[in-house]
Amino acid sequence: MEAATNAAVGQVTKVLPAISTADANAALEAAVPIPVRGAARFLEELADHMAAHPDALTSGSSLCPPVLLRLAQVLHEAGHPVVRPGCAHCGKIRSDLRQLRPEGRLCGTCDARSRQRETCARCQRDGQRVVARRPEGPICHRCYRADPATFEECAECGQFRHPVVRRDDGRGLCIKCWKRPMRTCVSCGKTAAAALVDDDGALCHLCYNRHRRPRRLCGRCGQLKRIARNARDGQPDLCDGCYQGPDVTCSICSRVRPCASRDEQGQPVCATCYQRHRSGEPCARCGRTKPVNTRWPIGPVCMTCYTAVLRSPAECPRCGMVQPLIARDDDGAEICGPCVGFAADYICKQCGGAGNPHSRGRCAHCVLAERVNALLAGPDGTITPQLEPLAAALADAPSPFPAIQWLKESPNTKLLARLASEGHELSHELLDELPPSRNQRYIRQLLVHTGVLEERNEDIERIPGWLEHELADKPAAHASLARPFLHWFLLRRARQRAATRRHPASADRDLRRRVSIALDFLAWMDQRGLALADLAQEHVDDWIAGATSQRRYLIRYFLKWTTSRRLTCELTVPSIPSQEPQNLLDDEARWRLLQRCLTDDALPTDVRAGGAITLLFGLSTERLCHLTPEHLKFGDKHAHLVLGRHPVLLPPRLAELLRQLAEQPQLRPQLSRAHPGPRWLFPGMVPGKPISTHGMTQKLNRHGILVRTARNGALAALAADLPSPILADVTGMHSHTALRWVAYARRDWAEYLAARAEEVTSSRSQRS
């Protein structure tokens, strides 16, 4: 006996180094008392099993001797880091899993379900579970419930029915007379039917599902989650997300749909009807009548207040601990739950922080850090030093819940995980080899934003990668012309202009368009059997004449390059026919729309401010998106917008809108960056970048502010009053374009100017 005890103690102390020999002896005595017959044999069996399975106390496997179940329970109650084994089928944790199967030990319920099926001797149905045996043979559950031999008089209604429970006096109650006992949940404090009653108290169904229901691998999604339907009849275990409920007729909408819920009468209800017809109570925090999410000492709480309180823990004025304040004292001050004896625990089991609970007793910050490590892990399972700044920025996101959702659902994370798992050193060249896509551009900017990659002029530098993918199915002769045309002609000029440009401008669209036109022109020449050396002016004219739009005029850039390289003779491409501004917004409509932007609180603030700037100053969408708080100058009486060398006076209401944009916190979670950049008035979805011009245009258009017509109307009004140099400085347009606008306004707006001058003269005479 002593040798068996010493062997078992040695295995326990080997697995749990923190436990002393005396504590291990005490735990074994509690699990296998010495007077028990065969105690030595049990201890030897335990020692042999733990020697063969060193992780027996931490793996949670129920494929073990019964003594290990009792020992795990004793060690768990003593606070040691062990995992109690559960039923191999349902996962229920018990110390009396008597039935051993190849997959592990089973509880009594699962053992009954897994027994061999036979033919019922009464109803003659095959494959039935045997509930009882009668002289005629085995009978199934249905026949057993209908067997008159099992009937007795109900103690309440007096009818002869099958009893489902017995009272203390031994008399039975039928299913209609029996009422589930109502107990107070030790977690939420709600009085309801208990789903579990143990030594710690009772748990309602909601708290049991959240905190105690066992987790297993779902047979459909493969994730470790709470199982809603156990495996049976050849169907695997299904988690809450995969199980939709049986397809039955909903008692409310009468449609045949998956119904996982029941109403008060026990009738099936589909998910849609359940959400629409959920009964509500006044929330103890906000006062609104909404469905109750939980019950705290302050009373019933809705989902909105539940989330707000748990995500903003504060110092309790009574005990000084940082906890979610879910109770009130006699004076009405908010205090934590433990101060009023409420046993709900919102402390993270991993970091010890309060609030922000997410899953399995851990806070959202710990879950986010774990998932970031899994996302960015390389082939060896660790994060490379290059990606550590990105991992730190993602894990330190100020709002962990949206970050966790982004890691789970965004297609960008799938590309990022693939790049990290390949183990290559990340670079701009590696990303250029990927097919151009929104995901590729987002990941590149994310790496630049966090300091993993160096910053570059992305509008220009991503064009070579785009060209290589465009040339994948093009002839080699076309590629040998397109590459030098882009690299030595277009990109060279674009880089020179970007180095001296005062205002932001996107060049990538124009560069791609000019290269695409060149490739189309080369394909057109191949169809006609032409070579560059044989190209004549009539060929160029035929190319221009066959156009349905003005894009073909852009061939001038390619032909200018071929001429300079002496690949073609001197050729002339006509200038693009100049057009007068179209779709002008008249003054009355423009002022009415401006009034709406300045006064309509129903519009988003960024839409009001962006629309007002466009309607007043005709600013291009590119410059509008790149506005920062540094462009605003607030004085004691007036506010100015610095667009060029001349600050522009802002109307008071527009100045207040821009002040709100400059001072309001960012709506989306912002990642920390190695080198802080500008803070945009109109931030975009991509970290460190403003909203795109296309996104801003679409947003303004959706709210009835048509950008092109609004800008044209504003420019026409400004051109009628301002000299062309000032107009060019304010709007950022070229001086020649400003001259054309001034000429257009003075010619076509002559009647308007005369009427305006007459109106000004009459108003002055009235004042005098």
Task: Describe this structure as you would to a colleague.
By secondary structure, this protein is an alpha+beta fold. Among the domains are: 2-113, no CATH class; 285-346, no CATH class; 364-456; 486-495 and 510-564, no CATH class; 587-761, hpI Integrase, Chain A, CATH 1.10.443. The chain is built from 30 helices and 31 strands. α1 (2-15) runs parallel beside α3, α13 (411-422) packs across α15 and α22 runs antiparallel to α23. The mean pLDDT is 84. InterPro entries: DNA_brk_join_enz. GO terms for molecular function: DNA binding.
Question: What is the 3D form?
Answer: elongated
Unreliable stretches (pLDDT < 50, length at least 5) are none
Q: Helical content, roughly?
A: 40-55%
The helix tally amounts to: 30
Give the beta-strand count: 31
Main β-sheet, in a few words? 3 strands, antiparallel
CATH architecture verdict of the domain at 587-761 = Orthogonal Bundle
Query: What is the first-to-last residue Cα distance?
Result: 120 Å
Rg value: 38 Å
Structural class: alpha+beta
For the largest sheet, list the strands in their spatial order: 9-10-11
